[in-house]
Amino acid sequence: MNTCSLAHPNGQEADSVPAKRLCKGECVQDGSVGGGGGKTSRAVEVSIVMPVHNASCWLDECLQGILNQDYTGSMELSVYDDASTDSSRAIVEGWRERLERRGVSMVISGHDSAQPRGVGHAKNQAVSQSSGTYLCFQDADDVMMPQRIHLQYEACLFNSTSLIGCQVRRDPEGSTERYTRWINNISQDQLSTQVYTSHGPTVVMPTWFCSRDWFQRIGTFDEGGKGVPEDLLWFYQSVGQGGGVVRVDQCLLVYRYHQQAATHSVLEETIWNLRVAFLQERVINQWESFTIWNAGKQGRKLYRCLSSFNQKKVLAFCDVDENKIKKGFYTYEESKERPKPQIPVLHYRDASPPYIICVKLDMTGGVFEENLKSLHLEEGVDYYHFN
Prior knowledge:
single chain, 387 residues, alpha/beta, Spore Coat Polysaccharide Biosynthesis Protein SpsA, Chain A, 2 domains, 6-stranded mixed β-sheet, elongated, UDP-GlcNAc:betaGal beta-1,3-N-acetylglucosaminyltransferase-like protein 1 isoform X3, Nucleotide-diphossugar_trans, Glyco_trans_2-like, hexosyltransferase activity
C-alpha cells in the first residue's frame, strides 16, 4: 500500500464520500461491462478511463493534467476506486467542480471491500460506467500533456480499428532508460513486428486510446487480479484480431516509475509464457523451419519452451561466441527422444533465415545491430525479435 498522502482541501476522509455520478440530462445505466452502460442525453465524445487504488500522492497532478487539455470536444472522466484505503476518493471528488466548469462531466464509483479486485476489474468497471465514443486510458499516477486527447482523437479518426499510443517522458528521469528509448524510438512498422519482445505492448498501456467499438469487439480485460498482465493479454487479443498499432510521435504523457506500480506484481515467467505462446501462434506455426539467433541461455530456453512440433523446425542456433560455435551443437538433455536431439550451432553468417532473435537490443554498443544490418534482412519477414 502506498504510504504517501496529500491534504484534501475540504478535509474529507475517503470513506465518507459515497459513489456518485453526475449526469447532465436524463441518465440511464444498464451496467454492462464495456458496453457504455452510462448513457446521457448529451453525447460524449471521449471518456477518460481511470482506475484508482491508493493514488492520493499523485492524483492532484494527474487531474490537473486532465483539466489542462486543449481538446474542445465533449469529455467525461470515469473513475473506479478499487478499495483505496487512503484519501483517493475524496481527492477525486474535490476536483469535481473544477472539472465540471471545464466541461468535463464525472462518473465516480468503487467499492470498499477488504481487498482490491485488481486493475483489470477496475478498468472494466470504469469503461462500463462511461459513455464516450472513444476511450482514453489514464493511470492515476501519470500526467497527460495538454495536447494528448486531441492528438490521439485525431489519430483514432483515421485508425478506427487500431490502438493509439504516444511517446512518453519517464519520471524520475533516467529510470528504465533502455525501455524508454524503445517506447519512443521504434518505427511505426516495428510497433507491429516487435510485439513479441520482453518489453510487452509496443505502445504502453498508460498511453492507450481507442474507439469504444474496437474495445467491445476485443472484449474486456482479464480480471484475474494481482499478477495477471491484463494489458498484454488484451494487446495480444487486439493484434490477433487484426488490430493496428499506431503511435503519435509526440511526448504526451509523463509516465511514472515507482515501486507501488501494479506491473511489479507480474512475474517474468508469466510474461515469458504468454510471449512464447503468441509467437508460436502468430509466426512459428506458419514457418517450415527457422534459426534461433543466440546459442546461450535465452535461445536455449526458447527452444525448450516450444512445442515438440516446432522444436523439430529449428535448423540451428547461431551466435558469435567462438566457444559455442567450436563445440558445434546443443544437446537437448531434457528430451525423451533417443538419441537426444542435437541442434547445430553456427556462426550467424553461416546460418539461414528466418530467425527468431533472442539477443537483447541496445546492449552491445551497436555491434549486434550492425551484424544484423549486414545481412540485409527484412524485419517481420526474415526475422522477429523475441528478447
